[in-house]
Amino acid sequence: MAKNPPRKDANSAENSPPANGPATTRTADGLASPGSSLTVAGDLMEAAYFNEQVIQAAQQGIVVLDRDQRIRAWNLYMEQLSGRSATEVLGRRALDIFPFLSNSGLAAAWDKVLNEGRYITTQFGMIDPRTGRQQYVTDSSGPLRNAAGKIIGIIASLRDITAVKKTEAEL
Description:
Elements: E1 25-26, E2 32-33, H1 40-57, E3 61-66, E4 71-74, H2 76-82, H3 86-89, H4 94-97, H5 106-116, E5 120-127, E6 134-145, E7 151-160, H6 162-170
Antiparallel strand pairs: 1-2, 3-4, 3-7, 5-6, 6-7
């Protein structure tokens, strides 16, 4: 017969939070929850990995721009949509890579996001780099703020709406 492990007193040192913050454990899905101690560095690494996976797995384009409109994040969907890898675009100004955006209304929308903190949705056309055909994209952009609330950039979510536009044209 299996012997039950000894019960731990709720006030024992093993159940006390570490001196550097509240205790956490990992649940079956890998997320943190109250209960055991993990290092701050480990928590930060897990959070960064989790965030990266969410961004990369999203089935829409996710782009983060800083105040100079330099690309700071670019997910796999954006690589497919634009034909440009993250290596090619990260750290570069979006309008330098995609000059057609200046005339699409997107550049003006981004200025409003940065200067007024507005959330703006813009539709524009572009040439599909894979096929050479016209495609249509919708961009929903909003301000990226730091912990103090200051606008430090833009978070943009993009979707290919070519099929929708084609259906609308056929009606």
